[in-house]
Structure formats: structure tokens, C-alpha cells
Amino acid sequence: MSRPKISVVGAGSVGVACATELARREVGEIVLVDVSPDLPAGRALDLSQSGPIGGFHVPVTGTDDYEATAGSRVVVITAGTPRRPGMSREDLFSVNSRTIRAVTERAAGASPESVLILVTNPLDVMTCLAWKVSGFPKKRVMGQAGVLDSARLRGFIAEACGVSPLDVAAVTLGGHGDTMLPLTRYATVGGLPLETFLSEEQIRAVVDRTRAGGAEIVNLLKNGSAAIAPGLAAARMAESVARNSRRVMPCSVLLEGEYGCRGVFMGVPAVLGSGGVERIVEVALSPEETAAFRASAEAVRRGIEKLEPQGDGNGT
């Protein structure tokens, strides 16, 4: 049986973390792409040499040539400038929109039947830009944010409860940023409601820390941003698509009436299979949650409205 090809655009920390997880799980052949040929070639060689230690064996290529990505089943785009202390995700809009436009054109041209997974910030807006530039159907373009944000929420809940994060189930919706909506009302610890373990005040503190989770890491690193968790999250999304696992994961997708929103990319639960976004899962929201979700959508919409058409494939 032939292995699916998965290309990771960007050989920085996030791209390497993603490629490493894909290799460790032997999801398929991996192509690591970056603007300089030496960087991805070196990363690919290092990753290949870790196989005998990690107990995996998959072909890994590092290159600056998008021809090597041709026929990819999934393309994960991590290229772009990371945040620095004091910067918001939106501060990256101008520089990263140029990068995403360029790499999407090349990746989509080489693999016109692929599924695109965006990781670059500002996530929801960059995912919309990739959709416009690629001309792909909406189900084949998605953004990685909800898997990461939900992992942060689960981790902070576990820490507050003094339990293993493996026993915590929780999900976040909305835009990837300060307006995200952690759905603590649905969160459980060992199958029990979160309120069994934490007070209302403690839950609010967990929500606030989740929303600022990325900034907390940026401020600690001083010269970089989160890499390991975003990379692993994108890899798990790519795996579900490549293996048609049909995992339910929160990711940024184009809404066309779901959750009362239209024409905006937002984080919602979705079934990920061989076709990309196989189905959007709608969950009942309270009036307060609905208001918060729509406020988050408006924040994302303002970013999307800044995008210039410049020949975008979907004509919007």
C-alpha cells in the first residue's frame, strides 16, 4: 500500500514539531519545505536519523522546491512570522498575509486535490486567505486552533483540579485569540461535571488563562512563541484526514449559516476525514455563549475585510 504524502510548509519550530509527530506516528511520506534549501534539508536529515531511536521509518525530504510536494494528500502551512512580547496575533496581519498568499499559490498549484491545514497567525484570517487564494472547496481548507486551545483548556483544568489531563474533556469554540469561547459548561473531569471540582471563580480563572495561553508562552520565551503543542495539534488533524479517521476536532472552518454566522472562518467542532471537513457539528449554546461566539465572529470578520482580492480563486 502506497503511503500518502504530507507536506509541511515552514521548517521552523512548529513545522518541525508537526513533521516529527507525523513521522513518529508513521502517517505517511513527509516533505518539509522552506524558502532556504539548507534548513529543511538539515531538519529532514535530523528527523530521518531519529527514526532508529524513536522506532519509526518513513521517507522524509527537505527542500525549497514545491515540485517535491506534488500530489500531497495534506499540506500543513506553518510558514510565517511568530509573535513577540507585546504583539497580538493581529499585529502579524500584514507580513504573514504576504507569506500565506505566496506559499498557498505554490502549494495548491502543486497539489490541487490536497487538504490545506493552516497554523499561521492571525489564524482564522489566514485560513480565509488560503481558501480565497487556493480556490479550493471550503471543506478542503481549515485552520488549526481549536485543538491547541482545547488542549490548553484541558491542561489548565487538570492543573486546577490536581488530576491527569487525560481525564479532562473540554472544548473551545470561536476565533483563535482573546475572544475565544471555552465551553466550560460542557467540560468534564473523569466523566463528572467540572463544577464538581472547581468553584465558579476558579473556572473563570481557568478561562482567562486559556485565552491568554499563547501570550503567556510568548512573554516567557521573549523571542518566540508556542511550537510543540501547535505542531502536534496540526499533525493530529493531518492524520485524521490522511487516514480517514473521522475524528471530531475543533478547527477553523467556513461557516455558512451554522451557529448563526455566515462568510466567516471560526473554530467549531468538525468531523475530519479524507474529504477534509466532512461535517460541522453544531452544539447548543446558551444566550450568553451565543453572544460571545458572535462577538468573536465579528472580530474575525473585521480581519477578513482587510484582505485584498488580488485574484483570489474564490472571487470574494
Write the layout of secondary structure elements.
Blueprint lengths: L4 E5 L3 H12 L4 E5 L4 H17 L5 E4 L10 E4 L15 H18 L4 E4 L4 H12 L6 E3 L2 H16 L6 E2 L2 E2 L7 E2 L5 E2 L2 E2 L6 H12 L1 H9 L6 H15 L4 E10 L5 E12 L2 E5 L6 H18 L12
Helix pairs in contact: 1-2, 1-8, 3-4, 4-9, 5-6
Q: Can you describe this structure?
A:
By secondary structure, the protein is of the alpha/beta class. Helix content is 41%, strand content 20%. It contains 9 helices and 14 strands. Strands 3-2-1-4-5-6 form a 6-stranded parallel β-sheet, with helices on both faces. It has a 3-stranded antiparallel β-sheet with strand order 7-10-11, with helices on one face. Strands 12-13-14 form a 3-stranded antiparallel β-sheet. Strand 2, helix 2 and strand 3 form a beta-alpha-beta unit. Helix 4 packs across helix 9. The radius of gyration is 19 Å and the shape is globular. The relative contact order is 0.14. The model has no long low-confidence stretch (mean pLDDT 94).
